Amino acid sequence: MNEKITTFLNSGLLDKYLMGTTTVSETEQVETYIARYPEVENAYNTLQHNLEIVAKSNAIEAPKQTLNNILEELDDTPVVALPRKVKYKKWYKLSIAASIAAIAFAATSYLFYNQNQKLTEENQVVVDEIFDLRGDIEMNNKKLDAVMEQFKRLNDPETYKYIIQGNERARDLKTVAYINPREKTSMIDVVSLPQLPEEQCYQIWADLQGKMVSLGILSETDRQLKRIPFTENATGLNITIEPKGGNAVASLENSVAKISLQ
């Protein structure tokens, strides 16, 4: 069966033709297909046969006396047979209604399915967002714990605060060191650092019995309270200008700030 015949059979024109609701052009098309294609003719005969069976099964036989009375009234006038399609018109309408109901049910089911899929996807998005939110909360809690820990250390009576200001070579330099000998912790807060050439950097040192021990490089981008190594028995802190990346030995001739811890 070719696609053209299949499309015609699925169009419902045969049903409309049997019911007598086709237009003139549709009637011509149906009759042409019935005459030209055996498959269409078989489908038409089968549909007509099924409708006849249904019509007969629902038919009520009229009393014989009624038929005789009608014949007497008609006398010799020929009786015109009514088209069978009128007999099963009601059945056919019910068939169409059932088909429409089935289509509506299928469409509604498909709509509910799509809505359910969208709801599932939206629920998954909400779940993902909840997991992301939990991750953000955990991260924020860790940051808060770190801040509280720093706050606790800063407010510890054993924590000493040292303000380090720059000399004439770096007048705008200002940092604050927090040292707790009991807890053996050291922190530094970079308040401001004058800009240096790209090939230079600031480096902080601990003075340990005349020997300079590096505590790290200071950067303007590190303008936050951060830990530096604790050096026990250190007598002072010194900030120098060193080559980019830091130096193994302090260039005391390039010192820009220093304080005594004694």
UniProtKB/TrEMBL annotation:
Keywords: Membrane, Transmembrane, Transmembrane helix. GO terms for cellular component: plasma membrane. GO terms for molecular function: sigma factor antagonist activity. Residues 109-248 form the Anti-sigma K factor RskA C-terminal domain. The lineage of its organism: Bacteria, Pseudomonadati, Bacteroidota, Flavobacteriia, Flavobacteriales. This is Anti-sigma factor. The keyword Transmembrane helix applies. It comes from Hyunsoonleella flava. One of its GO terms (biological process) is regulation of translation. It holds the Pfam family RskA_C. The chain crosses the membrane at residues 94-113. It comes from the Bacteria.
